[in-house]
Design goal:
heterodimer, A: about 400 residues, alpha+beta, Alpha-Beta Plaits, Ubiquitin-like (UB roll), 5 domains, 5-stranded antiparallel beta sheet, B: about 100 residues, Immunoglobulin-like, 6-stranded antiparallel beta sheet, 2 helices, 6 strands, about 20% helix
């Protein structure tokens, strides 16, 4: 008979009962809540049944009273098994050692995996990890807290922004995230910074090199502003001069600005043409014929069939022809002057660089003739005047 | 006096539609084919051998005949029998069996 786990733990004996008043014994046992199970009769007129070890001892007094005799035939379950084990000491020791070994081997660190390293070598990381007590065949319970290990590893390894240490069973994974460093600066040959135009210096900002000019100094084109040669006589060194020099530069412009200006205007009349788009060809399908107006501008809008990221070679093109008229606008003298000045300023700023600033402007001379305004304007512009010039090493010096 | 109380009990059992085994302390038997038999409300074993089992009831007795009978488990009021069961007889049930 198959035993339940509870019976196995308690231990079950199979007993045979001899005697005249077997039924009485069964009734007494039942009323005492002694669990007899699988009661069967043998051919010799004996009663066989199974009873747990505890109940077996409780059965004893009833045996005497009913005049039955009991004989244990079979013992099963944990208590008997342990008794047997006691006699087989080496087997028991082996069993115990097996479980101890299993536990011990599974609490060792067997493998260490390093992930995500590009610049750092695996050996470098393993070396640092070993100093933190993470190495193969280390007891995992002797390892420090994983958070602490990862913190210390980040401090130890250069160029690392984050390290995650994770242990799963006998495997330790070290996930490395390396920090990205900017690419190295390009190399320059030693140079001076010289003036690109004639100017009056307003500001000198030298990063490297020896500034040779000061504020309010007048410089000519080609004068050295920041020298790339530093040090006193006999003890010099060439460097890459870096920095910026601002200066006031004078410009004189002759401006002519017409009083009549041509302006393009849409009249509002339009005509629409439709084209079918196949691959890179178009086929007109709608709006044939010339428009009723002569001057026009065409505006094309293209629609292509697409689904998610897929663009199909199929679509439509809308071409809108819009009538244009050219109007002539007459400006007053003042307006023409302003437009001319604006245009001149735009030209100067383009020439002098983005961070140039117009400090002063003076109209020197102005006249209106033949529908145009003629002007001579003086601009004072503050701009960067530094220009690089390489230092040429003299041979035999 | 006892017959009066029995009549009242029968009346209530009929009126309230309560199962008879609850009211009259009668055995309730559950049988699975001829292999297993589950008897509730018995009053002890009278005789047991591999081909015959006699159980005492509150009134009368129950006889189970068959071969290779085994009492799988027994409790104070229930008994669970296995084996090949051929017949079941009830003796001395009196007017309850009418």
């Amino acid at each position: 008979m198959k035993l339940s786990w509870l019976q196995t733990v308690q231990g079950v004996v199979t007993v045979s009962i001899r005697g005249e008043r077997q039924e009485e014994l069964v009734n007494e046992a039942t009323s005492e809540k002694i669990g007899l199970s699988a009661i069967r009769c043998t051919k010799q007129g004996e009663l066989e049944c199974e009873v747990t070890v505890g109940d077996f001892f409780r059965l004893r007094p009833h045996l005497k009273r009913t005049g039955c005799r009991i004989h244990v035939k079979e013992r099963r379950g944990l208590p008997f098994w342990l008794r047997k084990l006691e006699r087989r000491k080496f087997f028991a020791a082996g069993l115990f050692l097996f479980f101890v070994g299993l536990y011990a081997l599974s609490s060792l660190v067997w493998t260490i995996e390093v992930k995500g390293n590009e610049k750092l070598t695996r050996d470098q990381i393993m070396q640092a990890a070993q100093e933190e007590g993470v190495y193969p065949f280390q007891w995992s319970f002797r390892m420090k807290e994983l958070d602490d290990i990862s913190k210390h590893l980040v401090a130890k390894l250069p160029g690392v922004s984050w390290i995650g240490v994770d242990r799963q069973g006998t495997k330790v994974t070290i996930q490395v995230v390396e920090s990205t460093t900017p690419p190295p600066l390009p190399l320059y040959s030693p140079r001076h910074l010289v003036a690109s135009v004639d100017a009056v210096v307003t500001e000198v900002r030298a990063e490297t090199g020896k500034p040779l000019v000061a504020k309010n100094r007048k410089v000519k084109k080609g004068d050295i502003l920041i020298s790339g040669i530093i040090g006193n006589d006999g003890n010099t060194k060439t460097v890459v001069a870096k920095g910026d020099v601002l200066g006031l530069v004078w410009y004189v412009y002759e401006i002519e600005s017409p009083l009549n200006q041509k302006v393009k205007v849409y009249t509002g009349e339009s005509k629409t043409k439709w084209h079918l788009l196949l691959g890179n060809r178009t086929l007109q399908v709608w709006g044939f014929g010339k428009p009723e107006f002569e001057r026009y501008e065409a505006v094309e809008t293209q629609h292509q069939l697409a689904w998610r990221n897929w663009t199909l070679p199929l679509g439509r093109v809308k071409e809108q022809l819009m009538e244009v008229r050219e109007d002539v606008r007459r400006l007053s003298e003042e307006e023409a002057k302003q437009t001319g000045l604006l245009e001149a300023k735009a030209v100067i700023l383009e020439k002098a660089g983005k961070d140039a600033r117009i400090v002063e402007q003076n109209i020197l001379h102005e006249k209106t003739e033949n529908g145009k305004v003629y002007m001579k304007v003086f601009f004072e512009v503050e701009q960067s005047i530094a220009k690089e010039r390489a230092i040429v090493q003299m041979q035999g010096e | 006096m006892r017959s009066i109380s029995r009549k009242i009990r029968k009346l209530t059992a009929d009126l309230l539609d309560v199962p008879q085994d609850v009211v009259f302390d009668l055995p309730r038997m559950t049988m699975i084919g001829n292999r297993q038999l589950y008897i509730e409300n018995h009053r002890g074993v009278l005789q047991f051998s591999s081909d015959k089992l006699r159980l005492a009831l509150s009134k009368g007795e129950l006889e189970v005949g068959g071969s290779e009978l085994v009492i799988r488990a027994i409790w104070t009021e229930e008994v669970f029998i296995e084996g090949q069961i051929d017949h079941i007889q009830l003796h001395g049930q009196g007017e309850g069996t009418k």
